C-alpha cells in the first residue's frame, strides 16, 4: 500500500505520522459515507460536498506520505477530517431528531456539528500563510499567525459554548451551552464574525509577498493556488451578483465543485505533478472565457435585435438558428485572434518565435541565394531556440558557414564544422 502511495521510507516518528494520516483519511471517508447513507434523500449539494472533503483528505494524506512534515499537508488533512466528521455528526443528529424515540448520542453528535463546521473552515484559512513550503514568508509574520490562530480558536470556542443554536442545526438547544453567559457569548460571536477580515486580508497579503519574492518552481506553485482562488472568487461573484441565474441547488453544487479545485491545486503544487502546465492552463482559460463571453453576446444580441423586428413562431425559430450558425462560424477566427492577443500579452516568447518562423517561411519562398538562406536560418534558430552553440552541416560541395551569435551578453563566433567525408 505504501508503494502505491509513493511513500518515502521515513524512520520512527515520521512513519507513525504516515500511518496516522492514512487512518484519519479512512475515518473521514467513513464518516462522510455514513452521512450520505443516513440521509433519507441526500440533496445534490450534500453529494457535491463530498468533492472538497474527499479532495482535502486525499491531498493531505498524499502530501504527508510523500513530502514528510510539510504543514500544508497536515492542514489539508485536518480540514478534510473535521469537515467529514461534522458532516457525519450532523446527519446522525438530524436523523435522530426525526425519530420518535431518538438515537443514543444524538445531542453529542449535534454539539460536535455545531463547532466542527466552524473549525474546519478556520483550519483552511491558515493554508495561504504557509503555502507552499509549510513555513511563514518571514519571521515578521509570526505575530500575524498567532493572532489569527487565537481568533480562530476564540470563534470556535464561542460557537461550542453559546446556548443559542443556529437555524441550520437540528438541535433544540446547545447541551453544553453556558446559559448565564448567553449575552456575552452572543456578543463575542458577533464580534468574531465582524473581525473575519483579519484572516481574509492576511491570507492574500501573505501570498502577494511570497509571490513577489518567488522565482522558478515556487512561483509556479503559487500560480496553481492563485488560479484556483481566482476560479472560486469568480464563482462566488457570479452567485452574489446573479443569484437567480441558476436554481439554488445548482448554484450550491457549482460553488462546492469550485471549492474542490483548491485542494487539487494545492496537491499539484506541493507534489509538483505537471507543475509547468499552469501557464498553459491560465492562457487556455483566458482564451475560452473571452471567446465564450463574446459568442454569448453575439448570440443574445442577434436574437434580441432580430426578435424585435421579426414576429411569428417560425420566423423566431429561424432567427435562433441564424444566430446559432453565426456564433458557430465566428468561433474559430475569434479563438485564433484571441489566442494571438493572449500570447502577445502573456507568452511573448512564443508569439515572437511564431512571427519569426512565419517571416522565415516567407523568406524561403522568395530567396534564391543559398548563402543568404543559411544566414537567415542560423539567425532564426538562434532567436527562437536560443541554443548555447549553433552549427550547420552542409553538403561537401558547399563550404560550411558559421553565424556569430550573442550568448550570455558576449558575442561568440560559432565554429563552422567541416563537412563529413563520404556523406
Description:
By secondary structure, the chain is mostly helical. The protein is globular and about 95 Å long. The chain has a two-stranded antiparallel ribbon. Mean pLDDT is 75; it is low at 1-7 and 400-423. The protein starts with 11 loop residues before the first helix and ends in a 10-residue tail after the last strand. A hairpin with a 2-residue loop joins strand 1 (404-407) and strand 2. It has helices at 12-38, 44-67, 71-98, 106-124, 127-130, 142-161, 182-194, 197-213, 217-241, 248-271, 278-309, 313-346, 348-366, 370-384; strands at 404-407, 410-413.
Name its key features:
mainly alpha, 423 residues, disordered N terminus, single chain, disordered C terminus, two-stranded antiparallel ribbon, 14 helices, 71% helix
Please sum up the structure shown.
The chain is mainly alpha-helical and 423 residues long. It has helices at 12-38, 44-67, 71-98, 106-124, 127-130, 142-161, 182-194, 197-213, 217-241, 248-271, 278-309, 313-346, 348-366, 370-384; strands spanning 404-407, 410-413. It has 3 domains: 12-230 and 261-273, no CATH class; 289-346, no CATH class; 369-413, no CATH class.
Number of strands: 2
Q: What is the radius of gyration?
A: 30 Å
User: What are the secondary-structure elements, in order, as H or E?
Assistant: HHHHHHHHHHHHHHEE
| DSSP helical segment count | 14
Helicity, in percent?
Answer: over 70%
Shape: globular
- Given as residue ranges, the uncertain stretches (5+ residues, pLDDT < 50) are 1-7, 400-423
Distance between the termini: 56 Å
Largest sheet, if any? 2 strands, antiparallel
> What average pLDDT do the residues reach?
75
Amino acid at each position: 500500500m505504501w508503494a502505491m502511495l509513493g511513500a518515502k521510507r521515513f524512520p520512527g516518528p515520521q512513519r507513525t505520522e504516515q500511518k496516522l494520516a492514512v487512518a484519519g483519511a479512512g475515518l473521514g471517508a467513513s464518516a462522510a459515507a455514513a452521512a450520505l447513507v443516513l440521509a433519507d434523500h441526500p440533496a445534490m449539494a450534500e453529494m457535491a460536498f463530498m468533492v472538497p472533503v474527499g479532495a482535502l483528505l486525499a491531498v493531505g494524506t498524499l502530501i504527508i506520505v510523500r513530502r514528510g512534515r510539510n504543514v500544508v499537508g497536515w492542514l489539508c488533512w485536518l480540514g478534510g477530517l473535521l469537515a467529514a466528521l461534522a458532516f457525519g455528526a450532523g446527519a446522525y443528529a438530524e436523523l435522530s431528531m426525526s425519530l420518535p424515540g431518538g438515537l443514543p448520542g444524538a445531542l453529542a453528535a449535534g454539539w460536535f456539528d455545531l463547532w466542527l463546521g466552524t473549525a474546519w473552515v478556520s483550519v483552511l484559512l491558515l493554508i495561504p500563510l504557509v503555502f507552499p513550503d509549510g513555513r511563514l514568508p518571514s519571521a515578521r509574520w509570526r505575530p500575524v499567525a498567532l493572532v489569527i490562530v487565537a481568533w480562530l480558536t476564540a470563534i470556535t470556542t464561542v460557537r461550542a459554548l453559546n446556548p443559542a443554536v443556529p437555524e441550520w442545526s437540528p438541535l433544540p438547544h446547545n447541551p453544553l451551552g453556558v446559559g448565564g453567559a448567553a449575552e456575552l457569548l452572543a456578543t463575542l460571536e458577533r464580534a468574531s464574525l465582524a473581525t473575519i477580515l483579519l484572516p481574509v486580508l492576511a491570507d492574500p497579503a501573505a501570498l502577494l509577498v511570497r509571490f513577489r519574492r518567488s522565482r522558478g518552481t515556487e512561483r509556479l506553485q503559487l500560480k496553481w493556488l492563485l488560479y484556483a482562488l481566482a476560479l472560486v472568487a469568480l464563482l462566488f461573484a457570479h452567485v452574489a451578483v446573479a443569484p437567480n441565474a441558476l436554481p439554488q441547488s445548482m448554484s450550491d453544487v457549482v460553488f462546492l465543485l469550485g471549492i474542490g479545485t483548491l485542494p487539487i491545486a494545492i496537491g499539484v503544487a506541493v507534489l509538483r505533478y505537471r507543475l509547468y502546465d499552469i501557464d498553459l492552463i491560465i492562457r487556455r482559460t483566458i482564451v475560452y472565457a473571452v471567446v465564450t463571453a463574446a459568442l454569448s453576446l453575439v448570440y443574445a444580441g442577434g436574437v434580441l435585435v432580430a426578435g424585435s423586428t421579426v414576429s411569428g413562431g417560425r420566423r423566431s425559430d429561424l432567427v435562433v438558428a441564424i444566430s446559432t450558425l453565426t456564433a458557430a462560424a465566428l468561433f474559430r477566427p475569434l479563438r485564433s485572434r484571441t489566442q494571438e492577443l493572449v500570447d502577445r500579452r502573456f507568452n511573448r516568447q512564443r508569439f515572437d518565435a511564431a512571427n519569426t518562423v512565419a517571416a522565415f517561411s516567407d523568406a524561403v519562398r522568395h530567396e534564391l541565394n543559398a548563402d543568404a538562406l543559411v544566414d537567415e536560418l542560423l539567425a532564426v534558430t538562434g532567436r527562437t531556440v536560443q541554443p548555447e552553440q549553433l552549427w550547420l552541416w552542409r553538403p561537401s560541395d558547399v563550404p560550411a558557414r558559421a553565424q556569430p551569435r550573442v550568448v550570455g551578453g558576449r558575442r561568440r563566433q560559432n565554429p563552422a564544422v567541416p563537412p563529413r567525408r563520404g556523406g
